[in-house]
Amino acid sequence: MKLGMRIRVVRQSLKISQSALAERLHVSRSAVSNWEGALAVPTAGNLLMLAELADVSFEWLALNRGSMKLAPNNHPIPAVDALLIYEPDELQLIQAYRNARGRQKLKILEFSEAHASKLHGTQDSPKRSA
Fold first, then answer.
1. Which helix (H) or strand (E) holds 118?
2. Which residues are within 8 A (CB) of 87 and not within 5 positions of it... i.e. 6 or more apart?
3. What is the rounded CA–CA span in Å between residue 102 and residue 82?
4. Largest Cα–Cα distance of the chain, in whole Å?
5. N or C terminus of the chain with fewer C-beta within 10 Å?
6. pLDDT at 79
7. Could you count the other beta carbons within 10 Å of the beta carbon of residue 122?
8. Per-residue CA distances from 122 to 63, 90, 116, 119, 128 (Å)
């Protein structure tokens, strides 16, 4: 399932309109519409706020990995995929993210996004919206 569809599924599970979601995330209604229509990509911070608002796994929402719903202790249910092999550094980063709270998670995401785009030369794509 594509990111835009996951955002729409989450919004519909909350039983709110695009305008209501936009208000809660402090963005425009057109930003939400563009995310759902795959015309723009939300920031990691907006995805994190949406995941927390809807009580869904950030890992599922942002990356389509693991389960949509959170485990009872509010940690994402780990992805159970025999084909998914993590490097030790990836596991360390995932564990740090899962143990972080609020703004710490946002800082980890911002850091990793900034460095990933520099490494892969993807600073200009796709279009990001607030």
1. helix 102-120
2. none
3. 30
4. 42
5. N
6. 45
7. 11
8. 17, 20, 8, 8, 12
pLDDT at 64: 86
Nearest to residue 63, comparing CAs of 47, 87, 75? 47
Q: How far apart (Å, rounded) are the C-alpha atoms in residues 40 and 35?
A: 5
DSSP 57: -
Q: From CA 32, how far away is CA 18, in angstroms rounded?
A: 6
How do residues 59-111 score in pLDDT, each as one tens digit? 889 888 877 876 554 444 444 443 455 566 776 777 777 778 778 888 888 88
Phi and psi of 26, rounded to 5°?
Answer: 60, 45
Full set of structural domains in the chain with CATH: 3-129 (1.10.260.40)
Residue 129: HSE in the Cβ half-sphere, 13 Å Cα cutoff: 19
Least confident of 12-16, 38-42, 66-70: 66-70
Asked whether residue 35 carries a pLDDT value surpassing 70, the answer given is yes
